Amino acid sequence: MRDHFEVTEKLDAEFSEFEVLMSKYKTCDQSYMSCDTLSTDQIREISTKLTALSETMSKIADVL
User: Fold this and answer.
1) What is the pLDDT of residues 9-21, one digit of tens each?
2) How many domains does the chain have?
C-alpha cells in the first residue's frame, strides 16, 4: 500500500506543477496560446513536464 501512496503523491505534485506551467500560456479568454507562438524552449519545457507526468501515470496500474 505504501507504493500506492508514493505514486499518488508524486502524481498530485506533478499535476500541480504542470498546471502552474500551463497557466503561463493561458490567454485572456482562458484558452491556451497556439504552439506556433511558443519558442522551442517553451515547447521543450512543456514536453519535458508532460513526459514526466505520463511516466508517473503509467506506474498507477502497477500499484492498483
Assistant:
1) 999 999 999 999 9
2) 1
